[in-house]
Amino acid sequence: MQHYLFSLLKHCATLASYRFTSKKLFILIYHRVLDAPDFMRPGEPDKVAFAWQMELLTRYFNVLPLAEALARLQNNSLPPRAVTITFDDGYADNFYNAMPILKQQQLPATFFIASGYLDGGRMWSDSVIETIRNFPDTTLNLNDIGLGVFSLASEEQKVAAARTILNQLKYQEPLQRLAHSRFIADQVSHLPDDLMLTSTQLQALHAQGMEIGGHTVNHPILATLDDAKAKAEIADNKAFLEQKLGVKLRFFAYPNGKLGGDYQLRHRDIVRQCHYQASLSTHAGVADNTSDIWQLPRFTPWDATPLKFMLRMVRMYCRQV
């Protein structure tokens, strides 16, 4: 019965493609592929969920490398149900969890790397999440940095506290954000320092045929930076990764990725000046050949079941962007 429903959804997606004069491209965003479900990271798939998602893509969609997908998007030669897979930030589990599954299904993907966190780094957001996970008491007092007091007596309260703190810190000036995240991390004695890729793992991803893209050095909110600092974040990240890999980077993903609050049109121009070929946002949608190649839409498949995953894909295809 489930196979019949999936086949029906595939047929619906194919029929939907004929409603439009230009073909469309799904660009999926992932960040992590966890060892097991984690209450502190409810939006991230584990290996089991990621495996069935990739199996569905293999069976019912046409998965393309990003470069080929964008070339065919622009000349309107995409196959029906075209998909490309992307990862943001550069987590180590991209290498040891996601890559084996991608290779098993013979699927290409693009990994956008924030180079400042390679080789033992930890993103500021992970400092917050892991502090809350490991905090020994039921009340976390952050009045000293103006963030308030949080109850951590249950898993639900920990998740809510992490969400609130992350939202408060996200748009702070980068140095202030770093200082505050370090203050929070100092509330516990030990945090994991192996969450991000090593240079060796990054090079292995590339050697396996995966595309590597730019994602700034320190993952700042570009809209909070002046032009000189923003250009340094984008250009230095590109130069560093190109030196590590011995290739020219072709694609860039904006940190956080929403036009206005996260990046502005001047940052699109900086990306172009850095000799990228295209850049990707996180505006939810499906790209067609009228899309701005410097602000391509992407979306995350949050769904916990295969049927909902397939329904989301069909709905996104039919959505007017």
Molecular structure report:
The protein is of the alpha/beta class. It is about 45% helix and about 10% strand. It is built from 11 helices and 9 strands. It has helices spanning about 1-15, 45-60, 65-75, 95-105, 125-135, 155-170, 175-185, 200-205, 225-245, 265-275, 305-320; strands at about 25-30, 60-65, 80-90, 110-115, 140, 150, 210-215, 250-255, 280. A hairpin with a 7-residue loop joins β5 (about 140) and β6 (about 150). α5 packs antiparallel against α6 (about 155-170). The longest helix is centred in the C-terminal third of the chain and has 19 residues, at about 225-245.
Write the layout of secondary structure elements.
Blueprint lengths: L1 H16 L7 E6 L16 H14 L1 E2 L2 H9 L7 E8 L3 H12 L5 E4 L10 H11 L4 E3 L7 E3 L3 H16 L3 H12 L13 H9 L3 E4 L12 H19 L5 E3 L11 H9 L4 E3 L25 H13 L3
Parallel strand pairs: 1-3, 2-3, 3-4, 4-7, 8-9
Antiparallel strand pairs: 5-6
Overall residue-averaged pLDDT value:
92
Q: What helical percentage do the residues reach? A: 40-55%
Quick one: how many beta strands? Answer: 9
| Cα gyration radius (Å) | 20 Å
**Could you list the spans in which at least 5 consecutive residues all have pLDDT below 50?**
none
What's the quick description here?
With 321 residues, the protein is α/β, with parallel strands linked by helices. Helix content is 44%, strand content 11%. It contains eleven helices and nine strands.
